[in-house]
From TrEMBL:
Domain MRNA cap 0 methyltransferase, chain residue ranges per copy: 144-430
Name of this chain's protein: mRNA cap guanine-N(7) methyltransferase
An MF annotation (GO) of this entry: RNA binding
Start-end of Basic and acidic residues biased regions: 107-122
Any one GO CC term of the record: nucleus
Methyltransferase is among the record's keywords: yes
CDD domains (UniProt xref): AdoMet_MTases
Length: 430
């Protein structure tokens, strides 16, 4: 035992200190003589009272349960940077490979933009316009005063997609059964071309658009597709001022795109050369060699031809009851290559928004810098003349209600004039 332990034991036993008759202090003696107390008693838990509320006042709000879709969306962080930190191993065979996209809450500062590429006020007007457009049902679309024009434009896009995507999909690295090919739809809008891509048997689809409300509507439209539903990812992004990597995860970009599509939207980039270059970077960076870039765009030759017919004393505008194009100035000696703005109105579709002329030769020359060679250019009227007797595209005119069983069309003369503002094009990447 430790030295001194016996002396301490004797003191505790006798109540006296060594070599001293003095007794220990009374309170110490009492502690030594008292029995060791037991553990404290356990507190008793009150019995739970059954939940039985009684409402006294009228309810001022009603809480609606979250839908399964809403619950699923909350499983994904809203901040893009947090999404990248998630440790996942996405698989192309897993439908969750393309998760619903959630944009940053913070608006991007101008200082965040690439040098020389900043969103203009016109971009905001365009996004606001398309965000405010309601997503009408099938019945209301059929009652549109320009239903003939809409059906014809959709037929042209269907021909363009079928004509060039099949060849590109045949050489695709993305395939599963009959479904093959990967598409980037820049300016996807409300998803009006989703069924066209479904009929082309695409396997993977990425849709980007500047209007976030339209993107939500496109995602909802995709979720209701019947039959073979391809994998799809949607995001709101200005593809003329931001790199697509900001919205698309690296895992989704490991396999290149076979086709990039831009339908009725490319002209918005021609505000500045910097925006056009950003557009071409986004088109070509992840498009494989041999891949196709296709789209539809206003015909600059037609626009300039109509403007040249207007006398200086008349307003710089033309059109009819279906459409109207209003330039800010008459044609002068110097015509700008970029930023040549006009205002466009299309009945029941576009409410006087700013657009830009796509001067064709500068466009083709710049495309070559990015490895794109032009392989197709047709006015919409020429597409009709070329393909109306085609064994597949001819019957499609009836199925898409461009003409009825008797060959009669809802496309009147004024709608036909509006249709021929546009050209269809296709490039192949070297």
């Amino acid at each position: 035992m430790p030295r001194g332990y016996d002396a301490l034991r004797d003191v505790l036993a006798s109540g006296k200190a060594p070599n001293s008759p003095t007794l220990l202090r009374p309170h110490i003696q009492n502690i030594l003589n008292d029995p060791i107390p037991g553990p404290p008693p356990q507190p008793t838990m009150p019995k739970p009272v059954p939940y039985n509320p009684t409402r006294i006042s009228e309810p001022k709000s009603v809480l609606i349960p979250l839908t399964p879709e809403e619950l699923e969306s909350f499983k994904i962080p809203r901040h893009a940077l947090r999404m990248r930190l998630n440790r996942v191993d996405p698989s192309l065979e897993n439908p969750n490979f393309f998760p619903p996209n959630m944009r940053d809450k913070r608006k991007r500062d101008e200082s965040d933009q690439p040098r020389g590429v900043k969103r203009s006020r016109d971009s905001g007007l365009v996004a606001q316009h398309y965000n405010s457009r309601p997503d009408v049902g099938v019945t209301e679309r059929r009652d549109s005063p320009i239903i003939g024009l809409k059906n014809f434009n959709n037929w042209v896009k269907s021909v363009l997609i079928a004509k060039f995507s099949r060849e590109a999909f045949e050489a695709s690295m993305v395939h599963q059964g009959r479904m093959r090919g990967k598409v980037l739809d820049m300016g996807c809008g409300k998803g009006g071309d989703l069924q066209k891509w479904q009929k082309a048997l695409v396997k993977e689809y990425v849709g980007l658009d500047i209007a976030d409300v339209s993107v939500q509507q496109a995602r909802g439209r995709w979720s209701t597709l019947k039959g073979n539903r391809f994998l799809a990812f949607f995001a709101a992004l200005d593809c003329y001022t931001e790199h697509i990597e900001r919205a698309i995860t690296p895992a989704m970009l490991t396999t290149p795109f076979d086709v990039v599509s831009m339908q009725f939207c490319m002209h918005y980039a021609f505000d500045t050369l910097a925006k056009v270059r950003m557009m071409f970077e986004n088109v070509t960076k992840f498009l494989r060699p041999g891949g196709i870039f296709l789209g539809t765009v206003p015909n600059a030759e037609y626009l300039m031809g109509r403007m040249s017919e207007i006398p200086p004393s008349a307003p710089p505008e033309f059109g009819n009851s279906v459409y109207k194009i209003r330039f800010e100035h008459h044609l002068g000696a110097q015509i700008p290559t970029y930023g040549h703005r006009y205002w466009f109105f299309l009945r029941d579709a576009v409410e006087d928004v700013p657009e830009y002329v796509v001067h064709w030769q500068p466009f083709v020359a710049l495309a070559k810098e990015y490895g794109l060679n032009i392989i197709y250019k047709r006015e919409f009227g020429e597409v009709f003349a070329d393909e109306r007797e085609h064994p597949e595209y001819g019957p499609l005119l009836r199925r898409m209600k461009v003409v009825n069983a008797d060959g009669v069309s809802d496309v009147d003369e004024e709608q036909w004039e509006a249709a021929n503002i546009y050209v269809a094009f296709a490039f192949r990447k070297r």
